Amino acid sequence: MAATTKNVTVNKDVANKKITVVREFDAPVERVWKAWTEKESLDRWWAPRPWKAETKSMDFREGGSWLYAMVGPDGEKHWAAMNFKKIETNKGYTAEDYFADENGKRSGDLPGMNWKTTFAGSGDTTKVTIEITFSREEDLQKILEMGFEQGFLAALGNLDELL
Predict the structure, then answer these.
(1) I need a surface site. Which of 10, 44, 77, 126 has the fewest CB within 10 A?
(2) Are the C-beta atoms of 51 and 72 separated by less than 8 Å?
(3) Mind listing the domains of the chain with CATH numbers?
(4) Model's pTM, two decimal places?
């Protein structure tokens, strides 16, 4: 099922264990790319308000990783890590994202997901397509139940403001 709101489309394909989010930004691809790949920018938009993202470490390169926490208004932290697989500057990257502890050790109770994020620029507009795939249907359902769609769309709204 697909839902569309102001310059964003979300398609939840449960049978194929995939969520696809397409979002357009009024900024050139180089600027949008930096916002997705530099920790200073990510910390400013990645979490839905009133939460914030806090990077512990970031090594944006193939084989590198990003360890970050989603920090709640009362200071509680939920840790996650993203391992970068393939990177093509200003075009896209693939990565594995998973819930972790503060040292990056994978949490066994929550599902991981594979991200394919692509960037297509046209002048001062950039379309970002995020394909998130899961190992099992149950994992996709769990992420949706945890509020992923609302949270991620709110974070993308933060990015729109930042750009």
Answers:
(1) 77
(2) yes
(3) 2-134 (3.30.530.20)
(4) 0.91
